[in-house]
Amino acid sequence: MNSFMEKRIIIPDTDLSVFPIGLGTVDAGLLWDGADADRIFDAYFDCGGNLIDCAHVYADWVAGEKARAERVLGDWLARSGKRNRTVIMTKGGHPDMTGENPDTHKSRMSHSDMVQDLDESLKKLRTDHIDIYFYHRDNREQAVEEEIETMEGFVKEGKIRYYGCSNWDADRMKAADAYCKEKGYRGFVADQSLLNLGMKYMNPLEDDTLRYTKGEAYQYHVDNPGNLEMPYMGNCSGFFHIYDAKGEEGVKNNPYNTPDNLRVAAGVKRLKEKYNCSITQIVLGFFSHQPFACVPLYGPACSEHVIDACGTMDVPLTDDDYNELLK
Q: Could you give the C-alpha distances from 144 to 88, 169, 299, in angstroms and in order?
């Protein structure tokens, strides 16, 4: 077992010790299900993994089944008997993505919305509790105090153990932290937002409800290690992989396609040759060279992808490698 598999990240003031890469499930029920899901989840656990990320909304944007990713995960938990070895994360409160032209600006984060989503998630996942439950978005028109009390209510009921936020602004996280300190609550244990190797130079994504770990949000994580950063889109939507395989023509319509990121992509290819490693390992290696702990969420398409990703820390990438890429 390599050093990456042996290493766990302890979230401060919790009893949670998590694998340095979380397994993402956004494609569960779309690209993989059943026996394929078994192979992916089992490969991750064979590599030492224990952290699986999901959301009640995955993948409602495709008609036919609601909360299909949670159903796939719940099926595997029932088949495998590994619930007690798994740190389960899921998210609620996302805008409705069913029907034509869903609007991510139509908030559904009221107390009743969250109760509904959590209860449905517990049924889909076939479990009596969630280890870390996230607000999937924020509603700045709601009081932070109200949102924290909703989560604290779930803790008291035993439905969740800890809670986190996804796509929150730094000022709202600071306000939540201040309220929790006043009340004696543990507060947010994790934050899911966009951070990756290509973010510095990328074009903004179409969905303006997504939040990026940069500027004030980046400094927030430097100053607040108790709220563990769990970046999504850590694989840069495949930009560096596509560039490696197809060159500039392959990425011409990609939001990461900027002159600076093309320069970074050329550097990634050089590092691939230097270390005889994969593009995935370079992209995921970025997260262990931040001034705060990161647990990126990686969504595989097959078990081979999982094994490749879990080999990241075998590659002796350095701070200088990434400083040179992003200079």
A: 24, 12, 30
Nearest to 91 by CA among 142, 187, 177, 25: 25
Q: How much of the chain, in percent, has pLDDT values that exceed 90?
A: 96
- Is residue 73 within 8 A of residue 130, CB to CB? The reply is no
Give the integer Cα–Cα distance in Å for 229 and 290.
10
Q: Are the C-beta atoms of residues 164 and 134 closer than 8 Å to each other?
A: yes
Q: What is the pLDDT of residues 51-70, one digit of tens each?
A: 999 999 999 999 999 999 99
Compute the distance between CA of residue 130 and CA of residue 181 in angstroms, rounded to an integer: 23
Q: Does residue 256 register a pLDDT over 60?
A: yes
Secondary structure of 185-220 as H, E, C letters: CCCEEEEECECCCCHHHCCCCCCCCCCECCCHHHHH
Q: Are the C-beta atoms of 164 and 132 separated by less than 8 Å?
A: yes
Q: Are strands 22-24 and 297-298 parallel, antiparallel or unpaired?
A: parallel
Domain boundaries 3-237+281-315, corresponding CATH code = 3.20.20.100
What's the confidence (pLDDT) of residue 6? 61
Please state whether the predicted TM-score (pTM) of the whole model is above 0.85. Answer: yes
- Tell me, rounded to whole angstroms, the distance of Cα 137 from its chain centroid: 13
CA torsion sign for 5, 11, 12, 17 is: negative
Does the pLDDT of residue 31 top 50, yes or no? yes
Q: Are 125 and 77 in contact (CB under 8 A)?
A: yes
pLDDT band at 200 (very low <50, low <70, confident <90, very high): very high
